Model the fold of this input.
Amino acid sequence: MTPTQPRDDDRDFAQLTGAFDRPIAPSPSFAERLRSQVHAAERSRPAMTPPTPITAQRAPVRITHAPASRKRRWKGAHLLEVAAAVLLVAAMAFGAFFLNVRRSDDAPETSRLAALASPEASAMPASDAATLSRMNGPAWYFPAPAFDATSYTLSTLVDDQRYTIRSIQAYGDYLVQTGDFSEGDYGDTHHSLLWVTDASTGDVLWDTSEHFIPNIAIANDTVYGVQVSTMGDRVIAKLVAMSLPTGKRLFSEPVLLVAEGPDGEGLGPVVVGDTVYVADTMGTTYALDATTGEQRWVSEGEKRVTPMANGLTYTAGGSMVADGDALFVVTGDNTIRKLQRSDGSTIEGFEIASGVDFETSLITLYHTGDALIARAQGDPTSGSDGGAVQMTPETLVSLDPATGEINWSRPLPEIAGNIIVMDDLSIVPGRPAETDPIELQLLNTFVGSWFSGGNVAHISDLSTARTVAISATGSHETLLMLDSDGLLQVLDLSPHFVTVQSTNVRSTPGEGALPPPVVLNGKVYVANEAGRIIVLTPNE
Amino acid sequence: MSAAMSVSEIDADQETTGSRDPTDAAAWFDDALPRLFGYFISRVGGRVAVAEDLTQETMLAAVRSETGPDDADAILPWLFGIARHKLMDHYRRLDRERRHFGPPSDPEDILASAPALPDLDLDALHVRDAIIATLDKLPPRQRGALVLRYIDGCDVPATAALLDTTIHAAESLLARARVSFRDHYHALTGEDA
Done:
């Protein structure tokens, strides 16, 4: 039979059904190895718990881009969806402002999921939201659970030079990126240029020719950054304020050298209301008028501890978070001071209790509302390859912001990305051993315990990735995760980490870390290794 | 559950889930291992290492899972449900690599007017080998679609769901996959049909 036109293809192919289901024995060595692994996995498996009903916790707010085939839907259905979404957002805002969402240490585990919605964040004024993202690390909030792989690129290449994007922040209609054309000019530090693009068009609105430390603050349509320059052996630092839309320099005030730290988290300026705060490596803290740059007060820091590794000096102090009328600052001798935000005076009664060795650890602060979370990153030591710097084991410590008393302390695995600390929940990417795949662990920030005996997510796609950059999203128990292989995944956090959608954003293979994704106006923005920003549009 | 039960038949039985005794892997390990390995080896181009990896991933995911079937008869369907997702994840990885790191040309554009699929003697080893080799030549998404729809016997909506796409797109993908399969099969075997 030699027909030139296919017969009923579907029926022809149906003959294949079931033809390849025959059992085939694998090699005995593989079978025995797997048997041992299964046995070991069974023994290490946490106690069985009934499945958590999660369906009801999925927030009904979704960004819906109806495909063309659905245009003929009944319009009333769309209106009902919109009304339901509006009601939900209103309820969330009501809860945030008037109900002061109740939390307790013995809250049921499911409360961790609600924490991701973080109505406090989504309802927050823009300026405070910027501060929050600065204080809590890269956490952005959006309600879309998934996105298409369709994308377009915003070129940030200049004269064909490769531009390494180190961070992206989203504010209003703008994307603010830090990055550089090269690595290693400053040893293990990353002084960066700063670029601002129109998020909708990708047009570069302005950029700087000076170097800044990568951690910047954005508030009140102003970008605040610490500019670093050298004059002979001297390093000169200035706090610079620039108009976000135009790049016009609003003021430039000299400060002492501001810390960068191993990964820069938790460092850099903080803006609260009309004041911008910045602390140097000793913890000397400056408060300046956010509009004029006029200095309001200076609080002297403490002696400087300079851990060294591979010939590089690591700055210890400078991490800072604001909490109501107080400002917590890490000083150069690795203690934490509590200052009055209005005048810089020390607030008495806050003292770190014994029990946690902060003596020579690098400390990054996070703020969770009820607690002050300190990430003690351990002592830097020289890496075996002569260039890398390793840290001794890290610890996450929860402190009572009133007294400094230690609520709990937890050792961390080998960290393989940025940590997200939120009110109820912390997300920790790490790996048990150097060759293990990256795991994401959930920590109950209230009590410092790992959820579900570890609730470890083994992300199979991460087997070759060195690091991940994660961003939490609100309204859904969803996490955006970009690994160093370039794979962007949307993960459903409950009850397991399930990949909802994924796409690859790299242009070429590589293993350099990529910055955490950000979300703006319902779109996901990610940067790849080629200095391009890729825009992904959420869909159903 | 009978040993001759096909994956497609197993699927229909895949509903019951609940809390599961964590100590029961020994009860199903020996039965499930050759079934899972056999399932994977024919769907990954006969690559033993890949089939072993996917079998391992499936078994360990099952053991680490906090939920599972209460009923012993539901264990195999549950395992094959996990296996199918692992296989699709594998195809997606291949697809990602192909799209991002592969040649610029798109093999999905192959739309030759190849002869129809012949009536196949599926007990003949050379025919089975040819089918496995042909599947292996298809772009990963097309391969996934054909495996789900025809080899595993899923219906089109289930195929679409497992491929994370719409029914319309799945039908379109299947149509291209069938043409591509016929084209490659003909080129490989030289058989008219």
Remarks:
- The radius of gyration of chain A is 25 Å.
- Chain A touches chain B through 59 residues (CB under 8 Å).
- The mean pLDDT of chain A is 67.
